[in-house]
Design brief:
Blueprint (H helix, E strand, L loop, with lengths): L3 E5 L4 E8 L2 E5 L6 E5 L2 E9 L5 E10 L11 E12 L4 E15 L7 E12 L4 E12 L4 E17 L3 E13 L9 E10 L4
Antiparallel strand pairs: 1-2, 2-5, 3-4, 5-6, 6-7, 7-8, 8-9, 9-10, 10-11, 11-12, 12-13
Length: 201
């Protein structure tokens, strides 16, 4: 569950609030056990100019140790900077999101964290509301000097209306996973997402 809520602070500055509430179901990821529940909540706040040809924002990111199972989270409070940049030349959307988080508090028996996350993306949008694009999600552990998770996604989306007026986007993404050889990871996967859009009135 990933709400994005923009708030106008002034005529020239917006505050874009983004939170990720991960609900996780995993089996045989850590040993032979199964874990289900809420993961760590990630909140990002981007200060962004409201009048700019290139959309960009910068601000803080916080990851809270809210996981309901110790295997689904870090047990650490993480803090660091985050940035997003994107342009929309013609029918294209091109950009990237990144953050770097450090552990600042939490369980002493869990390892300290210094991690970089980078997500580049590119999408071509048709006049009929269909989009096709490619994105990648990568996490790098500075302490162990290794890519701990990575995936590339082929993103297919369609904007539509339901209930007569509610705008939404349906996204289907085949996934291919890669990372350091020592990291346990799936070979492939799929993602389905529905995004509700509430235009400013």
């Amino acid at each position: 569950f990933q709400p994005v809520i923009p708030v106008s602070l002034s005529k020239s500055i917006n505050l874009i609030n983004r939170a990720i509430f991960p609900v996780i179901f995993q089996n045989h990821v850590t040993g032979t056990s199964r874990q289900n529940g809420l993961g760590d909540i990630l909140y990002s706040a981007f200060l962004s100019p409201s009048k700019s040809k290139i959309i960009w924002g910068i601000g803080p990111a916080l990851s809270f140790p809210t996981a309901t199972d110790s295997m689904l989270g870090t047990k650490k409070l993480l803090f660091g900077p985050t940035i997003v940049v994107l342009g929309q030349p013609g029918s294209w959307t091109i950009g990237a999101l990144a953050n770097n988080l450090w552990s600042v508090a939490g369980a002493e028996y869990r390892s300290e964290i210094t991690a970089l996350y980078v997500q580049p993306f590119i999408t071509y949008n048709t006049k009929g509301g269909m989009g096709i694009g490619v994105s990648s999600e990568n996490s790098y552990d500075w302490r162990r000097k290794m890519l701990t998770s990575g995936l590339v996604a082929l993103n297919l989306s369609q904007v539509f209306k339901f209930d007569g007026k509610q705008i939404a986007s349906l996204n289907l993404s085949p996934l291919y996973f890669y990372s350091n050889e020592s990291v346990n990871k799936p070979e492939w996967g799929a993602r389905v997402a529905i995004t509700l859009v509430f235009p400013k009135k």
